[in-house]
Amino acid sequence: MSLSVNTNAGALIALQNLNTTESQLQIAQNQVSTGLAVSSAQDNGAIFAIAQNQRSQSSALTAVTQSLQRVQSTINVAASSGTTVSDLLNQLKSAALSASDTSTNTASRAALNSTFTSVLSQIKSVVSNSSFNGVNLIDGSVTNLAALASTDGTSKLTVGAQSLALGGTNVTVAATQSITTVTLATAALTAVDTSITNVNNALAKLGASANAVQTQITFTGNLQDTIDTGVGNLVNANLAKESATLTALQTKQSLGIQALSIANSSSQSLLSLFR
Question: Nearest to residue 165, comparing CAs of 209, 195, 200?
């Protein structure tokens, strides 16, 4: 048996093994605590770079979704107000039709005109108060509204505005229209009928735009979920496996410490030779 106080080979080997275990234990502890197998470029530079690029893509898709949702809300407000305008036009038609009846006396026609004028004011109020996020799709102030449809900003989903302002291309009834005479009432009735048709067509277009935006929102959400899942597959740790590994390494660490202690104590046996 050869013993040396200058070199303790057993202790050196035990220390090397313990250091290896400590390094493995640190990795396992980091994965369990973060839930990530790759949490930095130091863990795996290539995988980390791919994951970061995809995280950027996912973040950009969040911005796209928010843009689409703002446009969707703007359309919803416009469509809701447009439905109200359609209902009010039906009231205008009833009043104009009654006023165009030659059997209606002057007093009754004056009362109908008062109702007609009041409904016109309501339409004007509804249209002017149909903004969302500062955008009004039915008052004629804008021609269209665009939402982001891609993460690089080059693709847009455009929604056409549908003006429902009085005296416009869709609602041809003028804000000053009256039905105080049979002739005026007859002219108003024609304008109202045209307006009803135009408004309902405009609502159909808004509805189609709303469906297109919702389809894009659904697609964007699904794409983002797919990307997030892909990133998880790249970087997430298998916690069940790592927990088992952690337990094993902790046990190995304890045994390594004991082995190092035993190896260090072997040199003490030299002292017995001098007793």
Answer: 195
The mean pLDDT of 118-141, rounded to a whole number, is: 96
For 97-108, the pLDDT digits (tens) are 999 999 999 999
Q: Are 153 and 172 in contact (CB under 8 A)?
A: no
CA terminus-to-terminus distance, the chain: 19
Q: What is the residue-averaged pLDDT of the chain?
A: 86
Beta-bridge partner residues of 156: 148
Token look-up 């990307």 returns 227
Least Cα distance to 150 among 233, 64, 214, 224 occurs for: 64
What SS3 class is residue 36?
strand
* Cβ 196 vs Cβ 93: under 8 Å: yes
Residues β-bridged to residue 135: 132
Please give the Cα distance from 146 to 110 (Å, whole number). Answer: 46
Contact at 8 Å (CB) between 174 and 32?
no
Token pair, residue 5, equals 């106080």
Which contiguous run of DSSP H or E holds residue 169? none
CA gap 38, 45 in Å, rounded: 9
Q: Which DSSP string do the residues of 200-243 spell out, in sequence order?
A: HHHHHHHHHHHHHHHHHHHHHHHHHHHHHHHHHHHHB--HHHHH
- Cβ-contact 157, 97 below 8 angstroms: no
Residue 24 confidence (pLDDT): 63
pLDDT in tens, 70-88: 999 999 999 999 999 999 9
Query: What type of residue sits at position 115?
Result: T
Q: Examine the pLDDT at 65 and tell me if it is beyond 90.
A: yes
Range list of β-strands (E), the chain = 131-132, 135-136, 144-148, 156-160
63 close to 123: Cβ distance less than 8 angstroms: no
